Amino acid sequence: MIVAVASGKGGTGKTTVAASLATIWDRPVVAVDLDVEEPNLDLFLQPVIAGTAVAHMMVPVVAEAKCTYCGACSELCQFKAISVFNQVIITFPEMCHGCGGCMAICPEKAISAGQRELGEISWGRAGEIGFLAGRLRIGEAMSPPLMRLVKARLGHMLAAESGDAIIDAPPGVSCPAVNAVLDSDVILLVTEPTPFGVYDFQLAWEAFTPLGKPMGAVVNRAGLGNDAIYRFCREKGLPILAEIPYDRAIAEAYARGRIIATVSPGLKATFVSLRDQVRDLAKPGQSREAARA
Ligand code: SF4
Ligand code: SF4
Questions:
Q1: Which DSSP helix (H) or strand (E) runs through 253?
Q2: Mutual orientation of helices 195-208 and 228-236 as an angle, nearest 10°?
Q3: What would the pLDDT profile of 253-289 be if each residue is shown by its tens digit?
Q4: CA 148–ligand 1 middle distance (angstroms)
């Protein structure tokens, strides 16, 4: 089972929820940081890193001696990453999505595969928890290609350990956020009951609902703000699976990089219950919330 922990905006406590959930998971699990622009799951889990690899993506390299400047590659590329002007051909590697279409279409076989560095992938263990993370190279704009490589490695890790995965997804509703939740079995949306939190939560709900995956909400800093998030969830039939109170002890633990599920027996029980409900959600139509209704 793959659980994606997502949020409409940054700063809601998404990473701390992902770390806590991984900590109380009672089956083999890999905690995955797919927030590759700003990875920080390692700050909570403190993994021992076993290996790293530089991640690359394919970009076209043109052998101009073979090129007839027919323009077929330029016409094909939807991202304007290769252009032909009269007798000049130019590539823009930073705009290339690595689809390989230009290579396939070139009648002269003038295009070969080069490489662009995307960032780094690291893996290891935090005690019983497997750990995997991507970190985008500074200055690199495209995170989905790196995320795809991290997910490919995750596939190998899960096959080797036959375990589950908990993904810390990027915040927001843009392409990287959707990409991060695409392969998940359950999406957990973490929010806080503030006006900004509610607004961005609604956007996330709208973005992820068409994917047709089971979703549940976690309300962090419960007790702050107003009840708009509860009304929205009721209206949309979205179960609230856990509430984490607005509490100084939790804020201090968070600031020190502690796992909040370990702060008190009550919080541990909250995350154990969250874990069980997530598993129920993964079986369509069998959530405990639904069963109680
Ligand atoms: S398709 Fe090949 S031959 Fe035509 S312009 Fe592009 S690189 Fe040159
Ligand atoms: S690989 Fe795809 S995205 Fe990149 S230049 Fe070629 S056609 Fe464009």
A1: helix 248-255
A2: 20
A3: 888 889 999 989 999 999 999 999 999 998 765 444 4
A4: 28
